[in-house]
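Hi team, as promised in this morning's meeting, here are the two structures we talked about. I've kept the exact order from the run log so nobody has to guess. The first one is mostly here for context; it's the second one we should focus on when we meet again. Sequence first, then the predicted structure tokens.
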Amino acid sequence: MRNEWLVPVSRATVFTIALLPFAGMVWDAVFDLLGPDPIEALHFRSGDWTLRFLMFTLACTPLKLLFQWKFQLRFRRMLGLFAFFYATIHLAVYLVLDLSFSWQEMVEDIPKSPYVLVGLAAYILLIPLAATSTRKMVQRLGRNWKKLHRLVYLVATLGVVHFFWLVKADLSEPMIYAGILSLLFLVRIVHNMKGQQFVPQAAPLLRLFLGPKS
């Protein structure tokens, strides 16, 4: 009970930190610090932060399974909404700044650039997740809420595929995201296969990579 006041403070802190990448993009745009191709810079930065927040969201449960940490669970829905926020910016940069709302050009882009279709599919799947993120919707949907929000696994996978097809040449960064996503999936899969015994068996191994528990 004595630490309950930390909950709203922590949420406010996480909210503020999550807005910093957006503030950085606005700052760089206003002061012309985005480089020779500002549209491309905004496109990649907003896409990067979409994937990062998807990874943050998906990491909440594995951290609980591995280390019994629970504090991050209270931020999970917020992190998911920020993934949607940066995905919306990512899409807006493409539609507004790159295509100038030319839907015909976007349709013509799809056969030449299939990553566009994959990205749009991922965004469309994010919409119902964002729309049902409130407590009222959780209560209204009941068990169906968890079933619906499992779509986030597919969204993250499509996001990584979208990144792979987008960059074409240097695949090092999308490979990092693919590795992180695979690890997060592996934790869940092994936990489901072995049950609660997975926690004491796998936690020491994962600590070798993640560092000591603080």
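And here is the second protein, the one for discussion:
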Amino acid sequence: MSSEYRLANEEILRYSRHLLLPEVGMEGQSKLKAASVLVVGTGGLGSPVGLYLAAAGVGRLGLVDFDVVDASNLQRQVLYHTRDVGRPKLEVARERLVDLNPHISIETHETRLTSTNALEILREYDIVIDGTDNFPTRYLVSDACVLLGKPNVYGSVFRFEGQASVFWAQRGPCYRCLYPEPPPPGMVPSCAEGGVLGILPGTVGAIQATEAVKLILGRGEPLVGRLLLFNALEMRFRELRLRKDPHCPTCGERPSIRELIDYEEFCGITGDADLVEVDHDAISPRELYARFDDGDAPVLLDVRSALEWAICRIEPAVLIPLRELPSRVGELHSDDEIICVCRSGRRSARATKLLREAGFGRARNLRGGLAAWAEEVDRTMPRY
């Protein structure tokens, strides 16, 4: 081991409980000091991952994010405090992690990870940890790791359930072997739409951090070829065996993906001309408020869940959740002007498109949803 990675006396004291483990010892702790790990996303999963890897003494931590701290993050993103709301996440994360362990190096990449920059950023690290919450970036991270030969420590959370695995094409399957195709757009709600138990990312993130440390030490049995499933309500873990897909387009016997692609297009998120048209024709919160003020109120169709409806709503409105809309469209009148409403304007845009295809020519979307309404019209409305 290079003298650069020898432990100083203060580090020996700091990591003493590691040094007493035969599986770690001085040699293993020096390996941790020499290692580099990239954490993609510093939210619910990235927070515990960053904290535990910094505390463990991983010598170089890279963080990728471009968001700012929002009050709704504080329920689960334990890197941040109330006073940090509005600040860039990476700025706060770096401060917290350096304060936790000044013996390590923190590198920040304040950018959206894309096909243009992913290989350049990931190339400089030994291990990549996927703490993202969307399918395009998950496929991007997976493909980039396969092309670079890097292990991808995967985790995901939703409501009360979590998953974790290690995708490493040189030793087992990749993310595409498990999920060859993304789900249809809008089929899987985001955490912002479906919710997540605040403690759950801590559990899954701790598992991801554990896997990264095991990989660095070369100890134990990593989650390569295994998918760990966790149900917090039942407090049960299950394990699924995964096999490498010989026909996988990235890590199979005859790979067809040899460079990064457009992942938003692959996941069906861009290129929807109908939704673009819906957005162009959307009504603004101020315009809708003026219509109410003039006594020219259209029909409001709220397409959120009943749980969201209980938090806040615009009165008067009709509640038909988006998933139920195709079977309940007969409850509406095609001659009415209908304004579709949701939290952010995304689900209501899809509802507007669905209604127009069903003959509701006067259906429109509320641009920005209730979040924009609370910002521009009614600041007393709860936000979530």
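Starting points for discussion:
The CA atoms of residues 175 and 278 lie 34 Å apart.
The first helix runs from residue 9 to 14.
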